[in-house]
């Protein structure tokens, strides 16, 4: 089959699901909404798997290089200057990979939610929002036009807002959804300005043309964008940095990450889908999509690298101290995305130097599986315990065997223990870092140790430690909740064996991923150390954690408080923006601008009041004016008559 | 098609209302009349496309020209291009939804009387003024209809308003009258400097557009016309009637005020000031840009501090209308298209917002954010509509606001000068501030726990309210999801105006 | 009669006129004000007659005017007093300060 015959369906089906469930779900479908959502996603998933098969194995390659195929494209908004916003579908290796990841994880989450959200009053609304998110995310990954990506970028933002605030009667959920949207909106502002610069300099909004023009060193666009500068920095660097800020906002990179931990107020399956596997990696995806342009600009790559590395280690440190299991996972997500970012940052276009690019995408791919698995397991736990706090849990392995095993698989994967998928992808990331920058490598290595530690801290605290007595009726939940866990854990086990370099590389050619046995000793050692330490501290109930925390003193407190970044944000928004800009603006409007208008009215009133005095209404007063007038006239006539 | 119908039918409707008895008859007649207007405007749109498809390339079509008062060369001259067509569509949407929203006539006068006949008459009559204004091709006719649209506003607010209505009505009427006075000076100045060749003057827009008015004259009269219309379109610092006027007006009047009346200003700035005085438009361009950027950002920041729902929407209107004037000030074709799109989009969106606020106020009897909360639980339809209006206001793709704003941004980025880029970035920054106040409002009033227990007894929207909201949402989504038809409609009109501007030789 | 110089008579009429004005300005009572107006009218009458007699003794224009004014004054007094009576019926007063209905 030709792509154009079915490819749009992958997007349009979830959209149709959203419209259908959003408009009529409450009245017509009620509980069957869930099944409709699952069915729609199932078709989409099958179609995207078929697309992937067609693209990677049948007709994606031309002369051993993966081609960019655009099967569908419509002009959406034509501007007078000749540029236009198009809606289209691009197929290239990363887009196809993302199609598979998004539909697959979304399907798993849809199925899991059947059990998790059962009995919820706004069940159909929930599914319509999920469909909306899936549609937007798919639109984002296949975007053929830089403005299309922005449009869907905003749409995933709003679906995230709606889903975080799904439990709208909780003030904390409302606040969290607001925070998430506003912080990413700020990042989007930078993204928008970046787009405007790129569009203006490149003279087009189309991705392929844009990338082609800006990487061709002979083109006039390339020359103008690299020679022009603003405040001493080249316009290209400005544009790419601004675009990257947009990506960093969505991907929760330091210092725009504060919304992600709070976003855990949403239903847990939503966190698995949006805040672990798909939406938060949009920033990485954006950088990867524009990678040819990034790769010609050292300065912006440098920024990408360091922001990624700082986020990775910072989040890992904070994750070690949090007690809310979902927050631990959120920080872990941020840390892993940091990995993907700096892997991109250390890469270059083409061949071996493009290892980081492949590694980043590989890590994105495997991370989607094990992180969504972790979140779904956490969801199953929360479903049973009705609490997010680690202290309320313990010894759950007896009650939830399936969850226990799958969680363990995911933990081993994220810690980087061979032969699970996380090991392979992290290996490549570390290797790419090792080749280009030893300092980054050091940070990454240390972070991977921390990762193993906090993940197993979580694992032991939930499933071992003090045993909690639940009533005997406690069970893991329905089949629909177990199935996704099992499927995802199988993926986690096997995904690492995919020869990823054959499919995705910075230049579309085949890249043999190097696998060095002696190189993997250090990371594995770090991971095992982390696991052992966690086991020592958390497997049995003891006071070691408290002693360690006490001995770390200030550092522990700072990490527990998330390095006071939230407080800094609060200070800036409340104290500076509200008090120093908003309040004066309102005051000026009321007193100065409006005051002037009222002043004019008041002045007119005064004058008329004064004139009114003459019209006293007293007959004799009028008579007096009359006679005075006569006398004046008489004098005038007498003296001036000629 | 006879364009006179677009004035005659609304006029007949409003007069017919005067002969009705009782609320039921009055609203039935109003509804039928308004529905006919909506259908008529779609028929007109269809006829317009047909005419264009048939190869009619003249700037204005369906022209009708007859001498009204020959000694002063005043003609009744009407005709439409794409821009007027878009505005007519907007007006007919607002008129119909305004009637639907006022179905139960909740706003009583202070004397406790209904006066429903008079209320609907004034509403519909305001519509007549707007329709006439948008199709006028004669400066005097244009001015005549502009004035027709002012007086009903004063009465609507003064009689059926709430709060400090006398003050607000007076303020609005005086400021708008002041604006009209400036407009008249500008128009008269234009008139006496026209020369048709045989020594007479003309009010005819098409003829004036072909002439070359001396540059010095343009520079002198452009500010009069622009500021005059700008008062209607919430030009900073003449926007202060907006918050007070909107907050005191009854729901339907707020919708008309923000949805139609503020658009009269934008349209006038475009059609009269910029189109007829292109040299001066270039000369004053930077001032317009600076002032509208101030309005955009400062309006947004001022909104952040408001606590009354209507004040929030009124100040955000100031901010959004800044985009209209910014688009006009930038003087590229894309930006002009964006400005017109923003007019249509803002008209629909803000009408929806006011309709929602009205519905909420009817039920809870408060507009203070601190006294609202958790309404989504008790009135899902109204709350969802409110959220949609909010999302449109913050420029979410899929709704009309995004399309319009993006078009303005793209248009201003076409100008190569750094000044324009900085202005664009300043204007862009408002999207964050908008998000802050919109989400704050939604978070407090719609989401969260129920603020007061007695709210749990409130009823959701009735059929007429649902229809009104749905119509507006359809309009918003139709522009937001498939914007090319509107773009295609406005494009040629903007091109005409641009061609006049491009002919200008001297710049600054 | 010839022995009396014109200035004497004019002095009387001027005095009468200003007495009338004085009364007009100072009195609140409508009837008194009406009387003051009559005084003024009569001073004018005197002027007419005197100027007719002294300047154009052969003509009668001044005398005609005088008769005309007397007639008008009578009619005016009738109307004015009717108004005053009506005012009194409504206000129990003929003070000019109390008639404020048409003010504002």
What would you note in describing this structure?
The complex is a heterotrimer of chains A (642), B (508) and C (104). In chain A, 71% of the residues lie in helices and 4% in strands. Chain A is mainly alpha-helical. Chain A has a two-stranded antiparallel sheet. In chain A, β5 and β6 (233-234) form a beta hairpin. In chain A, α9 runs antiparallel to α12 (282-289) and α15 (325-345) packs across α18. Chain A is globular. With 508 residues, chain B is mainly α. Chain B has a two-stranded antiparallel sheet with strand order 1-2. Helix content of chain B is 74%, strand content 3%. Chain B is built from 20 helices and 2 strands. Chain B has one domain (5-502). In chain B, a hairpin with a 4-residue loop joins β1 (61-69) and β2 (74-80). The longest helix of chain B has 32 residues, at 22-53. Chain B is globular, with a radius of gyration of 22 Å. Chain C is mainly alpha-helical and 104 residues long. In chain C, α1 (6-26) runs antiparallel to α2 and α2 packs antiparallel against α3 (61-91). Chain C has one domain (6-95): Helix Hairpins (Orthogonal Bundle), CATH 1.10.287.3510. The longest helix of chain C has 31 residues, at 61-91.
Order of strands, main sheet of chain A, comes to: 1-2
- CATH fold type of chain C: Helix Hairpins
Tally of domains of chain C: 1
Q: Tell me the helix content of chain A.
A: over 70%
Which structural traits does this protein have?
heterotrimer, B: 508 residues, two-stranded antiparallel sheet, 20 helices, 2 strands, globular, C: 104 residues, mainly alpha, Helix Hairpins, 3 helices
Write the layout of secondary structure elements.
The complex is a heterotrimer of chains A (642), B (508) and C (104).
Chain A: H1 3-29, H2 33-59, E1 61-62, E2 65-66, E3 69-78, E4 84-91, H3 93-116, H4 123-141, H5 146-164, H6 171-202, H7 207-215, H8 220-227, E5 229-230, E6 233-234, H9 235-250, H10 259-262, H11 268-277, H12 282-289, H13 291-295, H14 298-319, H15 325-345, H16 355-385, H17 401-415, H18 421-436, H19 438-463, H20 479-494, H21 521-538, H22 544-552, H23 554-560, H24 565-612, H25 619-640
Antiparallel strand pairs in A: 1-2, 3-4, 5-6
Helix pairs in contact in A: 1-2, 1-4, 2-3, 2-4, 3-4, 3-11, 3-16, 3-20, 4-5, 5-6, 6-9, 9-12, 9-14, 11-16, 14-15, 14-19, 15-16, 15-18, 15-19, 16-17, 16-18, 16-20, 17-19, 17-20, 18-19, 19-21
Chain B: H1 5-18, H2 22-53, E1 61-69, E2 74-80, H3 82-101, H4 116-135, H5 139-148, H6 150-160, H7 165-192, H8 205-210, H9 215-232, H10 241-248, H11 251-276, H12 278-304, H13 309-330, H14 333-364, H15 375-378, H16 380-393, H17 400-414, H18 418-446, H19 463-481, H20 484-502
Helix pairs in contact in B: 1-2, 1-4, 2-3, 2-4, 3-4, 3-11, 3-14, 3-19, 3-20, 4-5, 4-6, 4-11, 5-7, 6-7, 7-9, 7-10, 9-11, 9-12, 10-11, 10-13, 11-13, 11-14, 11-20, 12-13, 12-18, 13-14, 13-17, 13-18, 14-16, 14-17, 14-19, 14-20, 16-18, 16-19, 17-19
Chain C: H1 6-26, H2 30-55, H3 61-91
Helix pairs in contact in C: 1-2, 2-3
